[in-house]
Design brief:
The protein is α/β, with parallel strands linked by helices. It is about 30% helix and about 15% strand. The protein contains 5 helices and 6 strands. The strands form 2 sheets. It has a 4-stranded parallel β-sheet with strand order 1-2-3-4. A two-stranded antiparallel sheet has the order 5-6. It is globular, with a radius of gyration of 20 Å.
């Protein structure tokens, strides 16, 4: 009989590294709020005591993109703000996710003009779209739960980088180069 046999019967859990990492990532999202219009008020309401976004581990809104892993774009994105949004996204560490919140962020809303970006997915890859004008805080919480489901299913060891090339509207998965023997 070994020294530690039968000492950890009830306290032993077997799993793989992907599940543990995904559980930690989904349970401690640190959002960077990019509130541009009326949707930002609903995003702030979602973090208040009535709706309590902290139940999902996302209560710590960061002021710096280098400390955040979730970008919530809430409101009308103009073409003048698009480079700023892209710079903030590029400064976020991997893994990073994006929630597009509201009709204006999703598709330009009621502003089909030259100065309004017709969908934030032309600038950054979007993981979850939250519809509404403005969407209720419950809708943002539902979108956050769908993002947590997506994170739970991700493969963490061989995660592929998402890139939007110039002229494309959808993110492209970048594959690692295959070594050529010669």
């Amino acid at each position: 009989m070994g020294l530690i046999e039968h000492r950890f019967n009830d306290n032993l859990i077997t799993t793989n590294v992907d599940k543990v990492l995904n559980w930690a990532r989904q349970s401690s999202l640190w959002p960077l709020g990019f509130g541009l219009a009326c949707c930002a008020i609903e995003m702030m309401a979602a973090s208040a005591s009535r709706f309590d976004i902290s139940r999902f581990g996302a209560e710590l809104f960061r002021a710096s993109p280098r400390q955040a892993d979730l970008l919530i774009v809430a409101g009308t994105v103009t073409k003048k703000m698009a480079p700023v949004l892209r710079r903030l996204y590029d400064q976020m560490p991997e893994p990073k996710w994006v929630i597009s919140m509201g009709a204006c962020s999703n598709a330009g809303g009621p502003f089909p003009t030259y100065s309004v970006l017709q969908g934030v997915d032309k600038i950054v890859p979007v993981d979850v779209y939250v519809s509404g004008c403005p969407p209720r805080p419950e809708a943002l919480l539902y979108g956050l739960m769908r993002l947590q489901d997506k994170i739970r299913r991700e493969n963490t060891v061989l995660r592929k980088e998402r890139v939007i090339r110039a002229g494309d509207t959808d993110p492209t998965l970048v594959r690692a180069p295959v070594p050529v023997e010669g």
